[in-house]
Design brief:
Layout lengths: L7 E7 L14 E2 L2 E2 H11 L5 E5 L3 H7 L6 E4 L7 H15 L5 E6 L7 H14 L3 E6 L2 E9 L3 H5 L7 H7 L4 E5 L10 H12 L1
């Protein structure tokens, strides 16, 4: 069966408490803006709508740090239950905000090298391949950012705990296409990650 996404939304998952970093990763600075602002700006450049930003831990500080943009800020009151709760929270809100949406790109805010070109490539590959899942490929991993056709929304809503979309991708490799994201493995979980990122750009 061939799937076609015509109305694609973007959900940015930014509700975690950054326990390993020791401060909210959403608002740490990289190249003159916060990591979350970078994610929002790249999402905005795709012209895809709606864009939802899921916040949870440190929500007031995170929201206060954002520039005004045409995005929907959604508070996940159950963020402590793990990333799956943010996926479900985002999908529930999306289906109310835009019932015609038939595909969604999930992205996180701590992959500093995500670009609008990569996000648009996911949709382009979906429309070319007809596959219901299109993931980013890096270091033998298929992961975020990742696009899902609406036929997977019910399974995404059934995820629990810190089981993100990656497990769903693994179970459905025959229904998954991919696009290369060479720097996708670079994310910010610890202070060392952040310091290495800053050093790499300074060098």
């Amino acid at each position: 069966m061939r799937y076609v996404v015509k109305h694609c939304a973007i959900i940015i998952l930014a509700a975690g408490n950054s326990s390993r970093l020791g401060r909210p990763k959403q608002i740490i600075n990289f190249q003159g803006k916060s990591l979350l602002q970078h994610a929002i700006d790249e999402a905005m450049q795709t012209s895809l709508q709606p864009i939802l930003v899921i916040v949870g831990a440190h929500d007031e500080r995170v929201i206060k740090a954002l520039r005004e943009a045409k995005v929907n800020i959604i508070k996940n009151l159950n963020w402590e239950e793990g990333i799956s709760s943010s996926i479900g929270c985002g999908l529930d809100a999306l289906q109310e905000i835009s019932p015609i949406t038939d595909g969604v790109i999930f992205m996180v805010c701590d992959q500093p090298y995500v670009t609008y070109y990569l996000l648009k490539s996911l949709l382009k590959e979906q429309q070319k391949s007809g596959q219901p899942i299109v993931a980013s490929s890096y270091e033998n991993i298929l992961g975020t950012p990742v696009l899902f056709h609406k036929s997977f929304f019910s399974q995404l809503l059934e995820l629990s705990g810190d089981s993100g979309a990656r497990n769903l991708i693994k179970k459905n490799l025959q229904n998954t296409a991919s696009v290369p994201f060479p720097k996708g493995a670079i994310d910010i979980d610890t202070l060392e990650d952040y310091e290495n990122l800053v050093k790499s750009k300074a060098g």
